[in-house]
């Protein structure tokens, strides 16, 4: 069959048009990919008190975490990644400022503390806003609010919105402290005008029962510190009057926070966003929702880990539903190491079974030993990060400089400690830090496999409350400690006496880090 010249021209024209169309689509796809890699959405999933081996992909026993395991299997599982400190407030401070917490004398804050981060400080959310990001924080805050003596019945300021967050929905301090209310963009949620809310960490106020007088009203018995105002069957630190219309229900935390987080994701899916999702779990009081009770063999602490895993799965699901999963870098980690009995009797010790929350490491929350700050850390970014396990030495305070470097934003001179390890965070390099400082109730210095722990200074004693917690190995001693982690991962053999030259060298290096300006 002969094809006429006209038909041949039509066919050729159609073919050229098709090829051109395909080429345009390919070019558009390449451009979209470049834009996505240049400015990914960033979600920082920050669990509270989760130990190195508290999830199944790091060796947990008695609890399954399939959603977290999925991130680890398809992302980077870090084996030597750290929070900057062994307690919550200091770690959060370092993550948001790019500096070690000791520079601002950051410690665990009371529930009525003023905002710890000065509003003039350059912060991670401020930096990301410069790059065109919308920024949000959902969950536990514990970095202080206001300027002292907060009036909870009016707008509370300054807070996260004044240090770079466009949106905030907070648990103001911790679940074991009053006030037991949510704060959204500076206002207590659902607080009725006539229901005046007052908080005291000194004199008793209000007519609510307190735990030390009415233990029969409690879901979990508590120590004296946690035995003041009872709300939702749980006694807390501090006294609270009024505010009954705004009280939270502990069991609803995962659903309340997830709703706010997924709403933020959906509202900002068209442009790059940064979401700091700061979990309350698995901090005390551990009061998991009925949907998760009995899902582990370890009681409330294990069930709270299952609850964390559910939250992670729901966040990934939201990203998928909004079509932005491949545009999003997820960083999953913890603010410090694990603790079992931390003020409430929830059988965390009795039901531990064969589970070792710290894995092969010594210590836990509050401790200067490795388990105080070595925490499960996973980065996941489908299409960009290739699955691998990395033993690079990483620190959360480096996320600041790493993101700034990737986004071509010049670091302020005020950022003293954060280092750019972007390639290691996304698996393009296996090299992390050469050296770093670790913060507990003393300081330690890591350089490669070596670790030096400063002795307690003359006249300083181990805090009484820490001595009374039998499970806590604080690492506080009157003599220097030196370990080689390559041969002694559990920090059992103190090499200080046999290597005095190392002590001298590392003390000098530690001082240089401290004095850095």
The largest sheet, given as strand count, sense and whether it forms a barrel, is: 10 strands, mixed
Number of helices: 10
CA(first)-CA(last) distance: 84 Å
**Could you spell the SSE succession in H and E letters?**
HEHEHHEEEEEEEEHEHEEEHHEEEHEH
Widest sheet: strand ordering: 6-5-4-3-11-1-12-13-2-14
- The counted number of beta strands is 18
Write structural notes for this entry.
It is a single chain. With 517 residues, the protein is α/β, with parallel strands linked by helices. 25% of the residues lie in helices and 16% in strands. The chain has helices at 5-38, 66-74, 88-97, 124-130, 253-267, 299-321, 398-406, 422-425, 464-468, 500-514, and strands spanning 41-47, 76-82, 134-140, 167-171, 183-184, 187-188, 198-200, 230-231, 234-235, 239-241, 273-278, 328-334, 377-380, 388-395, 435-439, 443-447, 450-453, 481-484. It has a ten-stranded mixed beta sheet with strand order 6-5-4-3-11-1-12-13-2-14, sandwiched between helices. It has a four-stranded antiparallel beta sheet with strand order 15-16-17-18, covered by helices on one side. Helix 5 (253-267) runs parallel beside helix 6. Residues 1-33 have low confidence and may be disordered.
